[in-house]
Amino acid sequence: MSKESVKKLKARLSKTIFGVSTPAGKAFDITLIILIILSILMVILESVPRYHKNYGDYFSVIEWIITIFFTIEYILRIWIVERPSRYIFSFYGIIDFLSILPSFLGLFIRGTQGLAVIRGVRLLRIFRILKLNRYTSAGTFLIRALKASTSKISVFLFAVIMAVIIIGTLMYLIEGPESGFTDIPTGIYWAVVTLTTVGYGDISPLTPIGQFLASVVMILGYGIIAVPTGIVTSEITMKKLNPSEGDIDSSEFEGRECPECGTVGHRKSAAYCYNCGGHLQDHLLD
Amino acid sequence: MSKESVKKLKARLSKTIFGVSTPAGKAFDITLIILIILSILMVILESVPRYHKNYGDYFSVIEWIITIFFTIEYILRIWIVERPSRYIFSFYGIIDFLSILPSFLGLFIRGTQGLAVIRGVRLLRIFRILKLNRYTSAGTFLIRALKASTSKISVFLFAVIMAVIIIGTLMYLIEGPESGFTDIPTGIYWAVVTLTTVGYGDISPLTPIGQFLASVVMILGYGIIAVPTGIVTSEITMKKLNPSEGDIDSSEFEGRECPECGTVGHRKSAAYCYNCGGHLQDHLLD
Amino acid sequence: MSKESVKKLKARLSKTIFGVSTPAGKAFDITLIILIILSILMVILESVPRYHKNYGDYFSVIEWIITIFFTIEYILRIWIVERPSRYIFSFYGIIDFLSILPSFLGLFIRGTQGLAVIRGVRLLRIFRILKLNRYTSAGTFLIRALKASTSKISVFLFAVIMAVIIIGTLMYLIEGPESGFTDIPTGIYWAVVTLTTVGYGDISPLTPIGQFLASVVMILGYGIIAVPTGIVTSEITMKKLNPSEGDIDSSEFEGRECPECGTVGHRKSAAYCYNCGGHLQDHLLD
Amino acid sequence: MSKESVKKLKARLSKTIFGVSTPAGKAFDITLIILIILSILMVILESVPRYHKNYGDYFSVIEWIITIFFTIEYILRIWIVERPSRYIFSFYGIIDFLSILPSFLGLFIRGTQGLAVIRGVRLLRIFRILKLNRYTSAGTFLIRALKASTSKISVFLFAVIMAVIIIGTLMYLIEGPESGFTDIPTGIYWAVVTLTTVGYGDISPLTPIGQFLASVVMILGYGIIAVPTGIVTSEITMKKLNPSEGDIDSSEFEGRECPECGTVGHRKSAAYCYNCGGHLQDHLLD
């Protein structure tokens, strides 16, 4: 194969793997998403003893098909990018490696079924594929609103933790081990379960004074839930009324992914990754 | 009966069945609503063994009265509309058919009591009767606000599903089958029960580290609930501050129903259904 | 006693019982509130077998003191007002009567302890005493905001009821009696318990498909809670941004109570009750 | 030691203990926070029988190190301030004393392990150290928004308490002792558990009518939660739209603490405590 044809092949593969604008790129992305979801579903189902016993063999076959596909993809990525080492040690590079590792380890070492759970990191790969679109723009909006209220939410969380420690200790002193409040950590656990209105009922106060305190805590928790909601809501409303100048207009962005470090969110006109300086493929090849 | 008198009869029936502006039309609608609620109540009560045993006969009689009424209505609807096939295969046409089917099937086939539940589709008929009024206008407002925040809510749901899968898997690994976390699906089920603050208590962590993780999840869930609330609230507030131009002024609409496809929400001045082109009766007959 | 002195006495009593601006009126109101709370507390405590056995006699004595006080107050009210019949058959007149009735019935008839609970209506008397002040003005604001969103909340409630019926029926079909879903009403009860995130855990799904549906319901309920919050919040925010012209400026009102029908919220300058036309005492006697 | 050098030493210690702007002051604050958290953690862990048995000795040693550090700090504070009596009887002075008392009492008296919990007051010391910064400014904002809605929240709480009393009494009458509703306080406890959507499940209705009422209560509670959220959210949003003139610009404040009464939040330019008139150290020593 001539050097020229290799370069052309690389360019074509690049467009498929890193781009989203070509039909091939889209098909590749959708295949990946389906395989990831399938593979996550299998990790989940394999943990059920009954399914593992009856369908274990089918699971193995599908798992190997997925692993081989991911392995080929991993090798191609290394081959294509200009600086492979940068990709290999990037965040997504490590995830790509971890998502194929357990299957191969299982070949050589026995009793690595526990490692199967590591395959769960494949879930993270989904974020790379869900590049910049309507949804990530909405996601960005939400994260931005949450970030703007970080300090308020921290104060709130601090107050909740203090309250939970004080209430848990009080209930431990009032109820004691007979009611299931065997120690202060258990009391704090109960306080969290109650204040957040989860209410398992595995531990619940039995003495009248304990039930009274519990009632106060519940009504408190009822009111307290208003605080984070209020913070987030007002932040979102404000963001809508006065979109700050720095806000990204997501329509300007194309869903391209840097082949070297996996960063997404590059401007349409960008030719180089703003994170690592690698060549952005779609632009390069026009 | 002359052709003329048949046409007049059809017109009169049309006004009663499809219109809401005449006293007969209103009475017809109210009768229908009462019969539907009665029939739903009976499906519910019949499932209670005690009631089924004691009042089963009364239920049968009432059920047949309702079925006969609905059957007559169904036949009349077919007879009146210009293109019966279009009505029969429309959404509401199928619902009308399904709501009378189980009773007749019960005549010919034994052991079709399970089919009785199909009668529950009658619940859907209520939506046709609750045509455009103060309530559906409020409903439209709410649906509009929810739709405007679809992409944000999707992102939120996606994040919740991811979180639930990760938390469920972690708890399965930490707690194991002795605490009731028999497999990952059960762990995910527990995570949903906890994150949404439902907290049945059928499965709850027993190890200290599991209880600690559970506490973190609960406080997380407490904060997370703020996000959809914030999204919906700000959307409603914005909609109120700046009602968009495209918003329908509901007062302009009359609660007419297309006799052929069952669509509602036609403009006062409309003579033909905007959905299927069928004649709108009230207008036609003025 | 001369007619004149009787009239003067009536006027003085009027000021005490119906007014709030004099020290005597305030003292009277505070005494009443304390007695009502005491009497409610006693109804609550008497239901505890242990307290009833040990302190039953003390409770009786206190109960009779309160009853006698309320009886004197009731007789005075009848004596003072111009048209006693109007007071007697007014809302608060009936409550005043019901709150002393059980004690006297207990004298003549045996086994009327169940009636003691009727004394609970005394709780309602508290509303009359909490006349127009900072708190009722805040209460008015809240009620107004809730009323403005009645139609939206009705639609929401209707949707919730429909959802609960459908989900309850589905779970009854899926889980069946072995899991505790003995009939459709139980299924609906479970659906309410789950959708509102209460989650007792007395009934919970056991089959995988039931647990999956339950998870969907919970996440749904999680999102649904955003809707009423959004409605109320935006209504309160709008009310604050644009206080409508018709809104009462509560500072203009004095906490006077109509002696005949018990209505409160009269304008400072009012001499007659806007509800029944009775003389408002404070004004009359200046 | 000459009087002059004593004064200089006092001044230096003052800067370290009461100031935050010097490196020594910052290091002192961070050391204190770590010791407080460590000491709280130990109170919590000591309550677990297993840890107490295995690591009890280590806990004792750490506890004494912390106690000695706090004792030295306490003595220094008394020595440094101009009017020791004012510091000793101030809020933080008493807390400082209580946080070292239990360890010393344990030396002389046996069986004072119960007192160990008093060491929990050390948690309160953390508030003094978390002087005015980004977080307390956010905290101030939240407290301000909550205060502005006090009257509305009080009305809401009053309504919730009334509802809970009425519902609890009704359920006691409907369900009776067989379902666990042994008395009205238990009924009220159940009503709180249900209305706040906690739902332990330790008590739950068994009769159909009880389950129906419970369902109504739950849906009610579902709607009621919207009210405090609405109040707080709209208050926060309003505060953001129109920051009132009286609001403190927190950037103007320095995190200085009055050495005599422990008050924080003094203006940058302040030389005397606005609370007790004591000299503020940092300023004094420039």
TrEMBL record, chains A, B, C, D:
Any GO CC annotation of this UniProt entry: voltage-gated potassium channel complex
Domain of life: Bacteria
One matching Pfam family: Ion_trans
UniProt xrefs under InterPro entries: Ion_trans_dom, VG_K_chnl, Volt_channel_dom_sf
Membrane topology listed for this record: Multi-pass membrane protein
Domain Ion transport, chain residue ranges per copy: 26-237
Keyword set includes Disulfide bond: no
GO MF entries: voltage-gated potassium channel activity
Protein name stated in the entry: Voltage-gated potassium channel
Subcellular location, record wording: Membrane
UniProtKB keywords: Ion channel, Ion transport, Membrane, Potassium, Potassium channel, Potassium transport, Transmembrane, Transmembrane helix, Transport, Voltage-gated channel
Keyword Aminoacyl-tRNA synthetase belongs to the record: no
Organism name: Balneicella halophila
Transmembrane segments: 30-49, 61-81, 87-109, 153-174, 212-232
A Gene Ontology biological process term: action potential
